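Worked Example 4.2. Read the sequence first, then its structure tokens.
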Amino acid sequence: MTPMKEHKKLISVIIPAAGNAIRMNGVNKTFFALGGVPVLLRCVRLFERQPMVGEIIIAVKQQDAAFTREMLAQADVRTKTVIAAGGATRQESVYNALKLSDPQLPYIAIHDAARPFCTDTDIAAVFQKARECGAAALGIPMKDTVKRAENDGRILETLPRDDLVAVQTPQVFQKELYCRAIQKAAESGADYTDDCQLIEALGKPVYIVPGSERNFKLTTQFDLAVAETVEKKENGGSRMDFR
């Protein structure tokens, strides 16, 4: 596989941000002001400073589009940004964004809008692995013992923890490969919650790059409290107050 050239714009970043906040009691975590800065904007900043990123495409609900544009304008984001229509599912949101991406950029990186603490080092590492292998994602080993259970709570089996990985984002793919994968999913009616699954369904390998626990996803109210603690401890970022 031909290596990417350093510092050339090669990657379209897609940030799906059209979730329903079911586990957040209605709180839209992507616009939660963390240290005065919306979580979504913190995610945009992660990729704005990456030299190979040529554009950032954000998929949001229709009612959030105007606020998202205003947020980006206030923040003076210099990287090309595009707003896409959020879909009913994550996969649909990514597909809508993919259709708006620049065909001259051969790679796609998909990042959860609720992971604002990913490091430059981890992003660079997963970008590099995608150069080498065509498909890569961040992940960390499972710390807890994982069991498979029936709906009534009865344990069916204990899974071997040494073989288990909790997958994170960004997940990075050759764009041509991802387009084939999402087309196959559409034809078969499959809807996946993880982008690696689309590539796996093609029979193609995806490689895990060691991530870090700080790249946690804001899923519950407790996660927001942890995020505030992390932000205060690190004292990072702008203190701009977005409303």
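Now turn to a second chain, presented in exactly the same format:
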Amino acid sequence: AGLLIRPHPQNAEQWQDESLFAGVENVVIWPRRGANPVATEARAHYYDSMYYSAAVVGVNTSAMIESGIIGRPVYTVLTDAFSGTQEGTLHFQHLKSVNGGLLYVANNLNEHAEQLAGNYQTAKDPKSLAFVQAFVRPNGMDTPAAEVFADTFETVAERIPRVTARPSLIQVPWRALLYPLALLARDQRD
């Protein structure tokens, strides 16, 4: 099997050494400097990295959820080195538990290798689908999440009472005194 290592854009420095995996077949670090998938081409490469993978392995990142949306099985290995960013975070607990969890979790590398060997599949991963249905698309797979978010945001905003702040009696004369100074300062700045 080929292995694509896609460095997280904030942790790409550790993958800069060209000798990493030198002489090891079927292993590629790409993009070696990491890439923040915000530009069109970078987003396309990011998506393709997941779409054309049989499985995705990560520590704790949004790419895990995005891989689940595409239908890929998502794996992780619990380690002491990453315990703060894994077991120590609420969202990682969601990745492990919501509707059966998204993640195939291993406690060591041997268990991880066994999971990868035993769960290779070409169809969409049922764990990923169950997680996405519960966590990402709880209103149905065909309901756009952006619309649900916008409707929810508007509903909550309507419930918040509008309060207009009125200056106190002491603030009124101070504002009258300081206003010309503020205008002068603005003019000096410009």
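Notes for the reader: The first helix runs from residue 40 to 51. The two ends are 62 Å apart (CA to CA).
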